[in-house]
Amino acid sequence: MTYNAILFDKDGTLIEFNTTWLPVYKNAAIEFTDNDPELADALLGDHGYDHRSKRFIGGSLLAAGNNRDIASAWCKQLGEDINGAGFEARYQRLSHIFQQQAAVH
Fold first, then answer.
1. H or E segment at 94?
2. φ/ψ (deg, to 5) at 8
3. Coil, strand, or helix at residue 50?
4. Rounded CA separation 89/87 (Å)
5. Rounded to 5, what percent of the chain is helix, strand, coil?
């Protein structure tokens, strides 16, 4: 039997989600907000990271959403237009950050 692909989900079934994804999301939020730690914390907290328990909320955007959903929500929160070419560039940049950071963590 040969396999063409292996599918991994990010919900913690195969990996410890919080340990793996928190540094990825923190780095992405910092870069997405031009190094504003308070705003980065707001992006995380408003979309599924519970700062008190230091865990992601199951089913939240950050726990279950895809890159485009996250980019859209973050851009909206930052007051950016999500219907233009600028959004597509932001989405592509965020996807690149996630890929780069996920490889590190």
1. helix 85-104
2. -115, 135
3. strand
4. 5
5. 60, 5, 40
**Residue owning tokens 């990996």:** 15
| Alpha carbon 18 to its chain's center | 12
Residue-wise pLDDT for 63-78, tens only, equals 999 999 999 999 999 9
DSSP secondary structure, 36-102, as one string: -HHHHHHHHHHTTEETTTTEEPTTSHHHH--HHHHHHHHHHHTT--SSSHHHHHHHHHHHHHHHHHH
For 26-56, what is each residue's pLDDT tens digit?
999 999 999 999 999 999 999 999 999 999 9
70, 94 Cβ separation under 8 angstroms: yes
CA angle, residues 54, 57, 14, in degrees to nearest 5: 90
**What number of other Cβ atoms are within 10 A of residue 41's Cβ?**
16
